[in-house]
Structures are given as structure tokens and as C-alpha cells.
Amino acid sequence: MSRRDKLFEPYRQVKYILKFDIYIMKNIIKIQLGQNGPLVSKLGLGCMRMSSVWGGSIPDERESIATIHGALDSGINFLNTGDFYGAGHNEMLIGKAIKERRDDAFISVKFGAIFHNGRPVGMDLRPIAIKNFINYSLTRLGIETIDLYQPCRIDNSVPVEEIIGTIADLIKEGKVRHIGVSEITADQLRKANSIHPISALEIGYSLADRQIENELLPTAKELGIAIVAFANTAEGLLTGEMKAPLAEKDYRNHFSRFQGENLINNLEKVEVLKQLASNKGCTPTQVAIAWVKEQGAHMMSLVSMSRRSRLPENIAAMDIVFTTEEMNTLNTTFTIGAIAGGTYLQR
């Protein structure tokens, strides 16, 4: 049996769309957001790459919309965006994609980052700004209520009480359903949750980035807050496709993790991941995603995609299980601090 056949064997009995070469699943596992929140798919669709975030070209819009539709058809209902992705382009794109399918989609929106000419220049978390941001987002998305609304980061420029309190007021107005937070500390999470129940914490998490296991993850679990984990492949490190040195213009050259001896040493650890994936008949990317989803019933793997061709592989990752020996191999190879050098997740 070929590698492709092995990958798709679990899907032979489900609906097949000949035109798009996508196997459609309707049994994506669900997780609950917060203690009494809604059920959403354990695999989320990150829509950022469907827009020009860092000043690059805009991906093909028809392909992006087809990817969103394919995700919704498969049972992936969690769509993640930010009002600053492509200066609003991402929200408008999602608005087009869900125009006739609002009930199929759970929309998560981040706010607060200020961009100029495709580059971040600061944050604005003032209540007056939040009240402005929400109305633009609702208009671009073409909806009346955002399902999950969250500051993209809390930088202490504005008291947590004012930020969360403002979103709580938006819930009373019917413009927001649930409050989320992103990239914050354990202390900030406790404070935010004391002001209003927090449903979800969006945070970078992977085999290569496990520092949040020390305080942040235990705090979220204690408070009953779901984890929306992005960067499952650690900016491509865990895909098994990276080689040293990186291309001269690769943005990852700015981070010490991807420089010189650090990258060489880190890729040696990735060889263990590649061998384990080969033994299981899957890809390193699938193993990386599967490891994240195995970290608890409250854990979502948020995967960025802009092409529908990526859907089958990522959906199949949700069915991967590990033996005790395999999990021990991964956890010991990629123990906290095993990956040398920092990245933007350590800011």
C-alpha cells in the first residue's frame, strides 16, 4: 500500500468530492469552550495565511473560500481570524465564505494590534478603541454577533479590568457571545477570569515550545478554560522539511532558534520525529498536530491553512494515537528547553 493510500485508508467509506480531491468527515471530535461554553471542533482553522499579513501577496481568494467551505463540510466549525490580518481583508474574506452558512461557523476574532504598511507598530486596548474595533469587525464579517472576541495580547498598557470589562459590556449589547484571551501570563489569566468567565486561551504550543506547561496550562485547566493551540509545527521546524541554513530572506533567520548551531542541533531532534512518523506511516506534521491534540480534552489544535489540499492530511492527524513508548520518545526528545534558541513565542 502506498503512503498516500495509508494516509487516506480511514476515509475510504466517507463522501468523496472528485473535483477537489478532499475526503469529507463529519465526525470531528468536539471540545467545550469554558465550563459552560459551546462545543467546537477539536481541530480549528486558522485563516491568517489567507491574507497578506506581512506585506506579501494575497493568496487566491477563490481557493481560500473553497478551503473554508471544505473545512465546514468536514465538521471543522472553529474559524480563527484577527481584525488586523490584511487590514481587515481576512474578516471580509470569511464574511463572504460564511454568508449562507453562518450557523455552521464559530467565529473567533482577535483585536488590539496596530499595523502600518504591513508591519506591527503597537497595541491599542483602550475601551474606546475596543468599541470601535468591534463595529468594524461585525461589518466586515457581515454578522450581528462575534462568537469569541479576544485581545491578541495583554501588554499592561491598559488595566485588565478595563479590557475584559469592556468586552463583557459588548456581551450585554449582543455583539459578543464569549470572551477569550491570547498570549498572556498565568497571573493575567486569573485576573481576567475573575472579572468575567474566560472561555478560551489562544497560545502557541508545540513539541518545541512547551514552556507554558510550567504555569499557564495548569492555571487554564484549573479554571476550566479551553486551550486554542497555534504554531503546532513551531514555524515549520517540526514539518521535517526544514534544512540548514535557511534561505537568506527567510523571516525565521531573525530568531536564534533558526540560526547557526542552534538550527543544526534542533534539526537533529527533528530526525527522531521524522523516524517515528515514518514508522507510523504518517507525516511529521501530522505527528506534531496529533501530539498537541493528545494533551487533553480541553486542547484544540489550531492549524493555519489557505489551500484545501491541506485539509485531508490535517484532518487525518486527529485520528492518530500514540503508544506509551511513542509518547515517551516524543516527550523525552522534546522536553522543555530541549530546543535551543528563542522565537517570537518567547517574547
UniProtKB/TrEMBL annotation:
Matches recorded under Gene3D superfamilies: NADP-dependent oxidoreductase domain
Keywords per UniProt: Oxidoreductase
Gene Ontology CC annotation, any one: cytoplasm
GO molecular function: oxidoreductase activity
Extent of the signal sequence: none
Any Pfam family matching the protein: Aldo_ket_red
Keyword hit for Transferase: no
Protein name: Aryl-alcohol dehydrogenase-like predicted oxidoreductase
Organism: Pedobacter cryoconitis
